[in-house]
Amino acid sequence: MFNFMKTKLTVLIILMLVLPLKAQNDVNISGLFYGDYFAILKNHNETLEGENAFQFRRIYLTFEQGLSDVFDYRIRVEMRNAGDFSTKDKLTPFIKDAFLRWTHNKYSILFGISATPTWGIVERVWGYRSVEKTALDLQKLGSSREFGIAFKGSIDSEKKFNFHLMVGNGNGPSSEVGKGKKGLISLSFIPHSDIVLEGYIDFEDRPGGKRRITTQAFAGIEMENFRTGVQFAHQSRRVSPNTDDLSLRILSLFAIKKLSDKTWGFARYDRMFDPNPDGESIAYIPFDPTADSNFFLAGIDIKADKDISIIPNIEAVFYGKDSGGNKPNADIIARFTIAVFF
Fold first, then answer.
1. CA triplet 121, 144, 232: central angle to 5 degrees?
2. Domain count, the chain
3. Where residue 52 sits, what CATH number does that domain have?
4. Dmax of the chain from CA atoms?
5. What is the distance in angstroms between the CA of the first residue and the CA of the last residue of the chain?
6. pLDDT score, position 1
């Protein structure tokens, strides 16, 4: 009952924000939604086999406004559900972005809930968040948002060398629950207009003597009719003060090609070299947490309109052997995805 009333209150607050803003011509309102019809053809958890349904995976509503020559703000509301194939609930709204930004020449400072540098560049080159998250996001090795302060800008006048530095609570968009903080930094280099190279590192101090360190390297090519990228990341976890670190490594390769005026094709391969202990909690495609994995994704993007995509796609996960020498059954999910941007 409490959660239901909380959801109704959140929606009411959103409407109170939206209605006055719509009357102001200088407020930019945009958004998106994407969802699917999915069918689980095969799964390491046999109880999920045969599951099929229609679902919304994300709905965004974004408000942006310039306050002066140097200040602007963004508020973004997101709605989603658990994606665990068991929770029966309505879409839950929450604040995804809420920040004030100061911009001068090549530099910006953001305060509030804003995007982290963890996979911003990778996700831009990948371009199909509507189909699937990027590798670190999918495997729950980071957060897309943090509450804190961020510094962004270019080191040189030609904007070839760029940085994104952030210090946050370490709890994503949620409130702080400990003394530790999370530091994140991305350094990118654009040697040519079609090429981007990035190095990334973050350090997260967690309660109880725990901590996580994530490093990442990425190289991407963005052309008019073709995009591709390769990403490698490593995360070390100190799970408690008296135990060895847990090491997680992942490699991701993807390519996107324009096939005709209204059709694109894409494919991706992720290699998770180590079992992911958080695998079963991955939304919409839970992974077996006891074995390493090979993730494959392929699909066709049919542009029904400039801002509407119809995307049939299929995802498959094949596992190595667990500690007992057994291979979990493969996961195969077919989806018919629709993405709308407005």
1. 50
2. 1
3. 2.40.160.10
4. 64
5. 33
6. 47
